Prior knowledge:
Blueprint (H helix, E strand, L loop, with lengths): L9 H15 L3 H14 L4 H13 L3 H14 L4 H13 L3 H24 L1
Amino acid sequence: MPDDPPSSNPQAEDHYYAALDLVAEGHNEQAVAEYRQSLAADPNFTDALHGLSRALQDLNRLDEAIEVSNRIAELDPDDVLAHTSLSILYQKKGMVPEAEAEGNKARVLGWKQQLKKGSG
Length: 120
């Protein structure tokens, strides 16, 4: 559903866009708070979850970022970025087997998506 709006909740979107602005200004800590407010309004807003994971990663709060990325993968098991993020996060923590497993999942999902586009 790429044409769907990011969230059907205007409050979630407002906090999400505020968080994006804060990240652009280098204020990751405040961005985390905005992403969390966005998710309080819409807990399944995957764009906000992706942003939160990245902001936490930039703050070196890797365990929290892993938790958020796992939530995305639960909501959408075919989300390539969620598995790519998990691979990067596990690698940063020195968890090589987990990083490789998530990287492989991301690659396979990417291939599947390319095949679907090619046959569509």
